[in-house]
Every structure is written in C-alpha cells, then in structure tokens.
Amino acid sequence: MYPQPPYVLLIAGLLAAIASGTAFNNTLQDSVKEWNRNRSTRILATLRGLPLQLPYFGICSGICVFLASGIQSFGFSAKVAYAMGVPLTVFSALLIWSQLNKILLLIEKGGSQALDLDAF
Predict the structure, then answer these.
(1) DSSP assignment, residue 4?
(2) pLDDT tens for residues 9-50?
(3) C-beta atoms surrounding 103 within 10 Å
(4) Where along the chain do its domains lie?
(5) Phi and psi for 84 in degrees, rounded to 5?
(6) Does 114 have pLDDT greater than 60?
(7) Rounded distance between C-alpha atoms, residue 30 and residue 39, angstroms
(8) In this predicted structure, what is the pLDDT of residue 30?
C-alpha cells in the first residue's frame, strides 16, 4: 500500500554529510592555522572561497537528502519531502554561513582573543 522508505538514501545522505563535514573541518582548521602564522587578511578572504564552500555544499546536500528521506519514512511522497527539505536546508545553511562569516571577521579584526565564548 505505501512505498518503501528510502533507507539507503537516508544512510547515504548522512554519510555524505559526515564525510563533507570532515573535509570542511580540516580545511577550516588548516586555513585558520595558516592565517595565524602569517596574519594576512588575504588568507581569510580566500578562506570564504571555493575550498571551503565545496565541502559546505556537500554537507548541505547530504543533510537535504537525509532530511527528505526521513520525511519520506513518515509516508510523504518524494516531491513533498523534498519540497519541505530543500527550503529547511537552504535556510539553515544560509544562517550558518552568515554566522561563520561573522566569526571570521571577528577573528580577522581581533585575533582569536576577540572570540569571547562566555559572552555568547
């Protein structure tokens, strides 16, 4: 009566997001370490470029597939599931990317001491 939920896509989306997250983490850490050694604004400006955006896009794509597959497991069609999953993923991705840019600007202006984590 009901179609089988896409469990393979659920797992594949999660694994893709985790793999892309690892690449994102390593790229971000290496870039910040390089900036910390040289204190160049050019490095932080290029940090927001393709080397960081590509793994971030992978994270977002994996999360979108994971989210839509999870919605499908509740009996929704693929169209409805992706119609709900894509806007949620895009909205969350834009919010997180803007926060990352704000944090990078704080680091650029005042170094790592500018991030007072207790104030957040």
Answers:
(1) P
(2) 999 999 999 999 999 999 888 887 887 787 766 666 667 778
(3) 12
(4) 7-113
(5) -90, -35
(6) no
(7) 14
(8) 87
